[in-house]
Predict the structure.
Amino acid sequence: MPETPILKVENLTISFGKNEVIHGISYSLNSNEILGIVGESGSGKSVSSLAILGLLPKKIANINSGSITYNNTDLTTLKPKLFQKIRGNKIAMIFQEPMSSLNPSMTCGKQVQEILLQHTEQSKTDAKEAVILLFEKVKLPNPERVYDAYPHEISGGQKQRVMIAMAIACKPDILIADEPTTALDVTVQKDIISLLKELQAETKMSIIFITHDLALISEIANRVLVMYKGHIVEESLVADIFNNPQNNYTKALINARPSLDTRLKKLPTIQDFLDNDISDDIISHDQRQKNHEKLYGKPPLLEVINVEKAYISKSGLFSQSQSFKAVNDVSFKLYEGETLGLVGESGCGKSTLGNAILQLDKATSGQIIYKGIDITKLSKAETRTLRKDIQIIFQDPYSSLNPRIPVGQAILEPMKVHKLYNSDAERKARVIDILNKVGLSEDYYNRYPHEFSGGQRQRIGIARTIALQPKLIVCDESVSALDISVQAQVLNLLNTLKEDFGFTYIFISHDLAVVKYMSDQLLVMNQGQIEELDDADIIYANPKQEYTKKLIEAIPKGI
Amino acid sequence: MSHKSNSLRGLALQKFKKNFWGVFSFCFIIFVGFIAVFAYIFAPDNTQHANQMHLAIHSKKPGFSIDMLTIPSDRKEEQGGLDAILFGKKNTNTEVPISDFSVEDGVLIYQEYAADGIEGAEKTIELSIFPNQSVEGFIVERTFLFGTDKYGRDLLSRVLVGARISFFIGFVAVFISLLIGLLMGSAAGYFGGKVDAVIMWVINVTWSIPTLLLVIAITLALGKGFWQVFIAVGLTMWVEVARIVRGQIISTKEMQYVTAARALGYTDYRIIVKHILPNIMAPLIVISAANFAAAILIESGLSFLGIGAQPPMASWGAMIKDHYNYIILGKPYLAIIPGLCIMILVMAFMLIGNALRDALDVKN
């Protein structure tokens, strides 16, 4: 590989207002290489790459010092007019969210064609041909159809392919991919990654690949930068990072993700690495077996029998209404004290099933029997009493807390509504107790949600959920929005709470690694139906269904 | 637990305090509100509705001065002090503008004022009708700072007392519109489906009725008067509030904390009142400020058309109506002064609405 830097970032410092977010970072990008930048949210990985394209918000962001040199021009001082010639033409970018980065009122073909017309002197017909060639190159099925299709008519993965086509339309020297697969399912992610690799090999461009997922980066990058709080903490070849990480943060990042092979009792967090206090206790196969025998000897806590949920869409006044089955004939049993993992790709009906069990969205047909009572037939008031027993932990820690209620009040309110304990003083003591349990101090009682970080908010959400001492908790993608290190903390917390209070979990996630770590039984869903249901380890070791195999294969394994 | 926390409301208040025009308008509105409540204390003419007429000195320029003879009436009105402060003195005394007077043999001889240099009639009156047998304190020089209206009433007093109507119509109309709008809007937005369809139908029908027509209908049903106008304006304005509340609730309903509240077994009433409404206060406050301004304008318009506050009640709109034909007669101030008052008050509300919108915008 030739070691000629095409882009050089030197001593770059960026601040938002008075708040410095990038502290003098330097790195270079060689031609014909894929550079991975990995870090958690707030590490400055996106900000530094936006700076390369001059796309930082003008009013608040400030480049204090340093330079970004591309082809002997300093991009930090470039005039806006000249920048337009570089953007999209020499340096292109792919964004995270394919749903919102395409204009919904223009056909996909037109949007790509526009770029060609902007940056080259092609005629319209030539440009159209070029676009169709590009679509073939990014392996879109039936390029002619996609050319005339509007963004809502194609799938998420196809949209991301259109975005890539758009980015490589002018044969750029550098392609910046900012979390291009985070919003996509694992199987689609795999396809996109291999596409990017092929394109890179073919066109010899340089790619900066930004992600929070270390395992993913090992599949694509040649060289990796690890960023933490605006610093580059480690930089080396991808194999070295994985086999011989130097920095504690990198070590934590690699180990905080649940491994697919062994099951640690407690996932290590960054703090553990800093304190050098890592326990590698493993739950052995025998321990697990023994535990399961005990669990499955008892009668089931919850029984789901032939549950269906249909959505009816009426497209026109005279056309027949169409029904779509989001959950189709699902049956399973859940035993007290176990964790049932529910895994599947987006749209497979796993959240709908969760909502049906919670009675938030009533099932169309079928029975859900909880402790011998069919809860689909309960009255409104009875359902409200049942809520005390079946609870949910949400995905998004930012929107699951009411921004106008102090957290202490938010945890106290459910107790009050369900008339637990006798007085407010007693309840308050209990709230403080719970706050301590989830690792927050009582000082936080009167604070508002916006004063907390994502991980802390998720803890508050958990505290509110366990305030009612439920029996069954549905965790709907509860850790998906969290950074890996925080995710490890929350998973540990969930396991500790389960031991302390004897909860039963239904753990819903698209992330097979996390589900496998948490679950006793695993339920794989696809298109509203159960594909496979068995012990988590057994499914992972020998998947029986094609779909499950595909799913397991698509997980980025790391090195 | 000594930690003092910054609630979103606290942050918004801090932001509002930094906005000069917002704070200025707020102070101005408090000032006008104060004047409106205590209008009769400040008004030179503190009779009920500032209705002391002196036809001889009608439509005089601002700053016009004249000697004024007060002839006490034999009828004594019984009135409490607080009543007089809040609603003006009930007055049966006669006031006569005079150009000259003399006292001879217990008789007061005075010459009535007449405009345009004409000699006024000479009249006599027994001193015995005055208490203390003396005219001292009953003949004083009176200055009309804003001039006089077409019935010779003090324009300044009328403007001050008229502020009440403008101010209170704002409050009453906004209160009525919030009451109905919140109720209907939350029901439509939260429950959706058939409830939503019915309420939206009512909203659309109400929206299509012109305010004027509604006021006429209500006036027919309830009789003429300013209370009817208050109610009519409130009844037309709730639709905007309801639409905004509905839209906001539909989007807030999707937030996970509302689902969380449902999952925690809260009742619908509790979810709406405690979890949704506090979060949609920002647009509600802003629309209320705009509605306040709109209500003032609508009332002025209705009074101008003669179906608002009825004479002798003072109202800015009615004052413009009374005097708009003086504009071409070279005495535009009679209409301009109340017009300016309306403009400034409405503008203050608009500015406060803008400032609140900026302050309550949590995104920045």
